[in-house]
Amino acid sequence: MPKIEKIIYQSKKSLPKSFFSIPSKIYSGLGFTPEETREEVEDLFELKSKDHDMVLYTDHQNLRLVGIFPKVGATALFGYWETVEAATELNKEAFWLLQADAIAYEKTSLTGPLHFNTFHRYRLRLGETPSWKIFDREPVNPIYYPQILGDLDFRKTLTYESRRIPASEIRNIYRDKKKFVQGIEELPFTIIPLNPENWKNYEEEIYELVESIFNANPGYKTIDPAEFKLLYNLQFSEKLCPYTASLFKDSTTGKLVALTFCHPNYKSIQEEITGTPSFKRDFPKLKNPTMLAKSSGVHPDYRKMNLMNYSGAYVMLSFRELYEDTIFCLMKTDNYSRHFTDGIACEKAFYGLFEKHLGQ
């Protein structure tokens, strides 16, 4: 008799209580746990159900897995996968059911973990737990997850890394980027600090800039403003560091051309925070604060103008007064932005996205 129940998503009521209780068993004692709330999951499932079919595979105790089948395209996704280490047979059964459904949906490949698109949680963390344990919205998982996928004939298709630059090495960055720091005031661009007020003033333009910058990235899918605002909204802006997060605006055209999202790692005081973090309220509580360089990019029409370096130079103007160290977060291994920290001694963490081609 099958041990895995298959539940076709139809509404928020389709997700059983076990969907949200299984992770607590798996992450107990690890020192980190994925950032996931019932409200966030239910809202996203409801929003994506208009152009995706979703199926949950679970035994309600030790494993959950969601098959995500876009109405358009040949790739199925898997996400929301959590499992105890000993569930070898359960994983075989769950992924077999998922693959059979993917073939029935006429999909030719299966990719994950990926929660619908790259705006949401995706990738596995590979190898040992880094010293920081977890930063905001970092993909985290028990160490045995990649091996389970390998045993199921998945292969890494894309890789990423985070780099923690310790305080002792920060001076090398200042030395290497000195000319950009000195030249920042001469740029033909207006630098707009990303505080909540400016976020409200430029919210629609930020969405359009994000689309322009990242729409050619692997795995990226255009999303509508409503989905963008599930994560990137006024609450998000309140946790940004207004001294290092910025927008660059062309002084001639008034067009936004570059962005940098930076904020402190609030994890060390997570239990003291009510609701979502706030830089104004919570930064003073941090001891030895770490800055997270979360995302940065330049509009395609303005590349090859050193704006990535100048964005970094803007960060440096205030960094030493505020932070002890920094983590450059989740850079694709072959991404140009990764070169900003090349040659600097650092601690690294690695991540991977996995894929399996399906026989027809």
Describe the secondary-structure layout.
Blueprint (H helix, E strand, L loop, with lengths): L4 E4 L8 H11 L10 H11 L3 E7 L4 E8 L4 E9 L4 H17 L4 E4 L11 E3 L18 H7 L3 E11 L1 H10 L1 H6 L5 E5 L2 H19 L10 H7 L2 H6 L6 E5 L5 E9 L14 H4 L7 E9 L8 H16 L2 E8 L14 E11 L3
Parallel strand pairs: 4-5, 11-12
Antiparallel strand pairs: 1-2, 2-3, 3-4, 5-13, 6-13, 7-12, 7-13, 8-9, 9-10, 10-11
Textual characterization of the structure:
This protein has about 350 residues and is α+β, with helices and mostly antiparallel strands. It contains eleven helices and 13 strands. It has helices at about 15-25, 40-50, 90-105, 145-150, 165-175, 180-185, 195-215, 225-230, 235-240, 280, 305-320; strands at about 5-10, 50-60, 65-70, 75-85, 110, 125, 155-165, 190-195, 245-250, 255-265, 290-300, 325-330, 345-355. Strands 1, 2, 3, 4, 5, 6, 7, 8, 9, 10, 11, 12 and 13 form a 13-stranded mixed beta sheet that branches. The chain is globular. The relative contact order is 0.16.
